[in-house]
UniProtKB/TrEMBL annotation:
It comes from the Bacteria. Coiled coil: none annotated. It comes from Massilia atriviolacea. One of its GO terms (biological process) is DNA-mediated transformation. The lineage of its organism: Bacteria, Pseudomonadati, Pseudomonadota, Betaproteobacteria, Burkholderiales. Residues 92-298 form the Smf/DprA SLOG domain. This is DNA-protecting protein DprA. Residues 319-369 form the DprA winged helix domain. Belongs to the DprA/Smf family.
Length: 376
C-alpha cells in the first residue's frame, strides 16, 4: 500500500486507522456504523463531528467515545495490523478502496474491514459458492470436489467457508482449475479453523485467497459463522448446495443468496438420506435442481463443459461378484438385512463382501447400519 492517496490529503495509514477505530468503538455495531457513514460520509468525518450531531444517531456514551481520544486497545490493534500488512500477500480493504469487492458493496450492511491473504483479485472475479454439510458423506464430498473442479475449469472462482466436509472438498476442487478458490472464515484471517484444514488453508493462501471481516486474532465464536455466510453468498453470482440436513447452516447461505438476488442450485439425493432433506427443501422453494455442471453454467450464460471426460463407474473396477452386489445395492441407503434378503447371501459372507467394498472405496457405511454405493 502507498503511504498517501494523491486525491486525499490524509495518509493511507490515517484513513485505515479511522476505519479500524470506527469498527472497534464499543457500542458501534453494523447498523449504527452504517447510519453514521450515511450521515457523515467517512470515518474521519464521524470522528470530527460534534457530540450534539452524533447524539442524533447514537447513544450519549457512544457519542462520547467517538469524540474522545483513540483508546489504547485500538492503538494496539493498529500495531498488530501493521505487522500483518508487512507481508505483501496481506491486504486490508475498506468500502472506499477501489479494490473492495463490488458485489459486497451492494449488501445492506457491507463489512467495514475486509482482511485478505492471498490473491486479492479473486474477490472481484466471477464466482460460485459451493456449500454443504460438515458431516458429508463420501459421495457428497466427491460431488462437491467434482462440481467445484468443473466450475473452476470453466473460469469461475469457488467460494466456501473452510469448514470440514463439503466446504473442504469444494476448496480442493476449486484449486484444481484456473478459477481457484476463496475461503471466507469465521475467525481472524491470521487464524486457521478447524485445525484439520491447516494444510488446505495454507494452499488457499498461496494459490487462492482467505478473507475475513473479523479482527486479527479473533477465535471461532459460534455467532461469527452465520454472519460470515452473507459474505460467502455476497461474493458470488450463484450458490450450489451439495448436501444439507433440514437444519443445516448451508440453508442460511442459500436463503441469504435469494435475498441478495443470487441464483441458488441444489443437488438432490435419496428421499431416505437425512443430508438430502435440506436440498430437497430448497428445490421445493424454487432452487434449480442440478445433476451436471452444465445445469449451472447454462443459466449463468457460460459455455457448457460437455466435452469434459466422464469417469467410469466404480463397479467397472470390481470383480463380477462385487459388481453384482453393488448393482443390488443401487444408490439408495440400504440396511444389511434388506440387502441379504435381496441377494440371498448369509450374514457372514455379506458382511465380508461389504467390508471389502468399503475398504476399496466403492461404498460407505452410514449411521443406522445403512450402506450406500459411491459413484466415483
Amino acid at each position: 500500500m502507498q503511504d498517501t492517496d494523491p486525491a486525499n490529503p490524509i495518509s493511507q495509514a490515517e484513513r485505515l486507522a479511522a476505519w479500524v477505530r470506527l469498527e472497534q468503538t464499543p457500542g458501534v455495531g453494523a447498523v449504527s456504523a452504517q447510519r453514521l457513514l450515511e450521515r457523515f460520509g467517512t470515518p474521519q468525518s464521524v470522528f470530527s463531528a460534534s457530540h450534539l450531531a452524533l447524539r442524533e444517531i447514537v447513544s450519549d456514551s457512544v457519542a462520547r467515545a467517538l469524540c474522545g481520544p483513540m483508546p489504547d486497545a485500538c492503538a494496539a490493534c493498529l500495531d498488530r495490523i501493521g505487522d500483518w500488512l508487512a507481508d505483501p500477500a496481506h491486504h486490508l480493504l475498506t468500502p472506499d478502496d477501489p479494490a473492495f469487492p463490488p458485489l459486497l458493496r451492494q449488501l445492506a450492511m457491507p463489512p467495514l474491514l475486509l482482511y485478505a491473504a492471498g490473491r486479492m483479485e479473486l474477490l472481484s472475479a466471477p464466482a460460485v459458492a459451493v456449500v454443504g454439510s460438515r458431516n458429508a458423506t463420501t459421495q457428497g464430498a466427491a460431488n462437491a470436489r467434482a462440481f467445484a473442479g468443473a466450475l473452476s475449469t470453466a473460469g469461475l472462482t469457488i467460494v466456501s467457508g473452510l469448514a470440514l466436509g463439503i466446504d473442504a472438498a469444494a476448496h480442493d476442487g476449486g484449486l484444481r482449475g484456473p478459477g481457484s478458490t476463496v475461503a471466507v472464515t469465521g475467525t481472524g484471517a491470521d487464524r486457521i479453523y478447524p485445525r484439520r484444514n491447516e494444510a488446505l488453508a495454507r494452499r488457499i493462501a498461496e494459490e487462492g485467497c482467505i478473507v475475513s471481516e473479523y479482527p486479527l486474532g479473533s477465535g471461532p465464536l459460534a455467532a461469527n459463522f452465520p454472519r460470515r455466510n452473507r459474505l460467502i453468498s455476497g461474493l458470488c453470482c450463484a450458490v450450489l448446495v451439495v448436501e444439507a440436513a433440514a437444519d443445516s447452516g448451508s440453508l442460511i447461505t442459500a436463503r441469504l443468496a435469494l435475498e441478495q438476488g443470487r441464483d441458488v442450485f441444489a443437488i438432490p439425493g435419496s428421499i431416505h438420506a437425512p443430508l438430502s432433506k435440506g436440498c430437497h427443501s430448497l428445490i421445493r422453494d424454487g432452487a434449480t435442481l442440478v445433476d451436471c455442471v452444465d445445469d449451472i453454467l447454462v443459466p449463468l450464460r457460460i459455455a457448457p463443459l460437455a466435452t469434459l471426460p466422464v469417469q467410469a463407474d466404480s463397479a467397472a473396477l470390481c470383480t463380477g461378484a462385487q459388481a453384482a452386489l453393488l448393482d443390488a445395492l443401487g444408490y439408495e441407503p440400504v440396511g444389511a438385512d434388506a440387502l441379504g434378503a435381496l441377494t440371498g447371501r448369509d450374514a457372514g459372507a455379506l458382511a465380508a463382501a461389504l467390508l471389502a467394498l468399503e475398504l476399496a472405496g466403492h461404498l460407505e457405511r452410514l449411521p443406522g447400519g445403512l450402506f450406500q454405493r459411491v459413484k466415483r
